[in-house]
Design goal:
38% helix; four-stranded mixed sheet; two-stranded antiparallel ribbon
Length: 213
């Protein structure tokens, strides 16, 4: 069973109604004795998410979008055509579905994107502990992080992918349409990161809905 992937989202889409930190601090998160890197932080987050599902069970966390002000290519690599310096707004919002319900974890306390991702990973680890200790199950532990609304592209995936409301659509249809649209919307072909992010959200939402039968 292939683990769901974390899709990069650009630009940062901060959760509606969530207050912002006005004065950020330098984080203490470290990786191999050095400052936290984006790659290490994203790996740490992926491991914590994967640990929320017991071996052999269907993945509880799907439709993951890591929204930041760092641009990525369609392959998931950091876009080399833009500055690699830290963005002015290092906030991070992690959108995902847990047991079929949309959630979001957001952090902008720290002065780097990597550290804010690492903070979200640490928060997930702490919430997982509540289930291990028998205090609450994951749904109860994450109750305070239910998203007010899922990304718009997730609700309107048919429109985003160009399918009519009544069309019979299969997962293969979704993959084929995604490939065609991605070829035109990728930033390297005159498109934009925003367009690719919307397309990725719609594809994940479509596959999720179709898998339910």
């Amino acid at each position: 069973m292939t683990a769901p992937t974390i899709t990069p989202g650009y630009p940062l889409r901060w959760p509606e109604g969530r207050p912002r930190i006005k004065q950020r601090a330098q984080a203490l998160f470290r990786h191999e004795g050095r400052s936290m890197t984006f790659t290490a932080a994203r790996t740490r987050l992926a491991r914590q998410v994967a640990a929320m599902t017991r071996t052999g069970q269907h993945y509880r966390v799907v439709s993951m979008i890591l929204s930041t002000n760092i641009r990525f290519t369609a392959s998931g690599a950091r876009d080399q055509n833009v500055s690699r310096r830290e963005p002015d707004d290092p906030g991070v919002a992690f959108y995902f579905d847990l047991d079929g319900k949309p959630h979001v974890l957001a952090c902008d306390r720290w002065d780097s994107v990597a550290d804010n991702i690492a903070a979200i990973a640490a928060h997930i680890e702490a919430l997982r502990g509540q289930e291990r200790w028998g205090v609450a199950d994951l749904r109860q532990a994450f109750a305070g992080h239910v998203a007010l609304a899922a990304p718009a592209a997730a609700h309107g995936w048919r429109s985003t992918l160009g399918f009519s409301a009544t069309a019979r659509v299969t997962a293969a249809d979704v993959d084929a349409r995604y490939r065609d649209l991605a070829a035109a919307r990728h930033p390297d072909r005159g498109g934009s990161v925003e367009a690719m992010t919307t397309l990725n959200i719609a594809r994940d939402a479509a596959k999720k809905e179709l898998s339910r039968g």
